[in-house]
Amino acid sequence: MLTVSLHGIKIIAPHGLYPQEHILGNTFEVDVDIWLPDAQPWPFADYTLIRQAVADIFMQPGQLLEQFVYNIHTALKEVIPASEKIRVAVKKLHPPMPGDVAYAQVCYER
Predict the structure, then answer these.
(1) In Å, how far are 2, 19, 84 from 92, measured between CA atoms?
(2) Which among 36, 63, 83, 86 could bridge 43 via Cys, Cβ 3.0 to 4.6 Å?
(3) pLDDT averaged over every residue in the chain
(4) Residues 6 or more apart in contact with residue 91 via CB below 8 angstroms
(5) Cα–Cα distance for residue pair 25/13, rounded to 1 Å
C-alpha cells in the first residue's frame, strides 16, 4: 500500500466558536494522509488537488473543528476515489483560551 501525505497545510480563516474568532480569525494547520492500494500502474495522487480541497472547505462557513475535519475527509474521498483510507487532522494553533496552549486538534480516519 502506498501512503501519500501532505502535512502542515496552513490556512488563516475567520472560523471558531466565539464571536471574536470571526473578527480576528485563527490559524489552522491541516495534515492529510491518503492510503492507496497497490496497483498497476503505480497509484498517483495530485498534491495540488489535496491542498485545493482543504482550502475550499475553509472557504465555507463553519465553527467546529469536527465539522471541518469531516468535510475535508468527504471532499478528499471525492477527489481521490481510489483511496483505501484517509486520515485528516485539523489543528487550531494557539486557540483563544487561558494559558499557553500550542493547538487544539481533531482527527478523523476512515
Answers:
(1) 28, 16, 27
(2) 36
(3) 93
(4) 28, 29, 30, 31, 103, 104, 105
(5) 5
For the stretch 8-52, pLDDT in tens is 999 999 988 777 888 888 999 999 999 999 888 888 889 999 999
In terms of DSSP H, where are the helices of 1-110? 19-24, 47-58, 65-79
Q: Residue 82 has what DSSP assignment? A: T
Letter string b/e over residues 56-80, b meaning 16 or more CB atoms within 10 A of that residue's CB: ebbeeeeeebebbbbbbbebbeebb
Sheet holding 2-13, edge to edge: 2-13, 26-36, 85-93, 103-109
Torsion of Cα atoms, 91 then 6 then 56 then 65, to 10°: -20
